[in-house]
Amino acid sequence: MDVLWQVETNIDDMNPQNMEYVFSRILEAHANDVWAVPVMMKKGRMASMLCVLCTEERLDTILEIVFSETTSVGARYFPVQRAICDREIKTVLVDGAELHCKICSYKGCITNISAEYDDCRAAAVRTGKPIKEWQRKVKEEAYAQYGYTISKQD
Q: Which domains are delineated in the chain?
């Protein structure tokens, strides 16, 4: 198990378009993840709850970004435990192109294989074939080239 810190703040009076910039600043500060969810606040005001996962060492930096780049005047933060899969990046050959995929496993069993989005996007632009076809082919090739099978834990 791994311990991270979750930072949350509700924002109801900021241009939502600015959220993309806030996300990029937070990720540049080496947060583990950032997301926003719609929430309804008192008096029926629609808002966004900005959430960040980070290490304890990054907590002050993340709070500084939240307060300087948003209209937030307060934030909650608390430790959270997480379980994570082991991950490795593999290269597969699809129609003559080298593309990457992420192989995830938990307790030694493969749990997921996902194609790298940017690689598949570039292949789709280059060839005119749909991106979902490239994603499917990458996954199929990962199974074929590396002999993976997905197994479930009992």
A: 2-82 (3.30.70.1380), 86-146 (3.10.20.300)
